[in-house]
Amino acid sequence: MxxxxxxxxxxxxxxxxxxxxxxxxxxxxxxxxxEDVVGTISAVVAAxxxxxxxxxxxxxxxxxPERCTAGDPACxxxxxxxxxxxxxxxxxxxxxxxxxxxxxxxxxELYRTLAGTPGFFTAPQAVNHEDAVFADxxxxxxxxxxxxxxxxxxxxxRLAFAAADAxxxxxxxxxxxxxxxxxxxxxxxxxxxxxxxLRSDHEQVNxxxxxxxxxxxTELARRFDPTMAxxxxxxxxxxLVVDAIAIWREQGWQRAVDLVNATDQQQWDAxxxxxxxxxxxxxxxxxxxxxxxxxxxxxxxxxxxxxxWNS
Length: 311
Hints:
The chain is an all-alpha fold. About 60% of the residues lie in helices and about 0% in strands.
């Protein structure tokens, strides 16, 4: 069993396993393992979710990883090497996970430069520590999903990975769904693991992300999906993507504070459940708003990508 280390490092599982109906079909009268965490999913919404039975299995959280406690810049170099290898495997197939993979790689490359720029971060070693833990949360979820361990994958990451596997989302949808999963779900745990770090450095990351956004989206549009060039607003909302990212990161910070301040296991579990549910709710809204009206519409994106992915 995989466990999440909670309050004072105690290993706990925040949900239990429950059986459910036919494979690939949302149970009509019994709650699924997924719904134990995110709440009841209506039949109308369930019918629009990826037709992947792994989405519905019970969730057993994994331990928040630990790496780079001394904050050596070499940790970020290693992370970039891993990200590059993973992206290089995705890009030639035009897999829809390549959009978030490239976005995350380019942001981390910029981070490596800025972390080495005197004065940009007050405590760069702490941010290097956070960067390593943060990346490992994504790597772990991705690997668990793609090696047949869906029970270890957080609900929002399941949705992101299943949607990408099924090629259901626009390029903007895939990129933003990954961001929502990584920021709203993973960030609180990464910040908790490093005991928060400096608030000023957290806000500097927002500055960095604004610096990176235009160039990254331009590259994504050129190589994978030209419609991404117009993706300045979060689908289904009137909020600019750069503003939404700052909002999500503020929420991630506040949930991390709640984790740090938990005085017993019950409080920890309540915060953990809220993190999973808030990430799922926000991600589900984005998923539905950015989903292709007709599945066949992915052909346009995929055909374009086949001749431009390496441009």
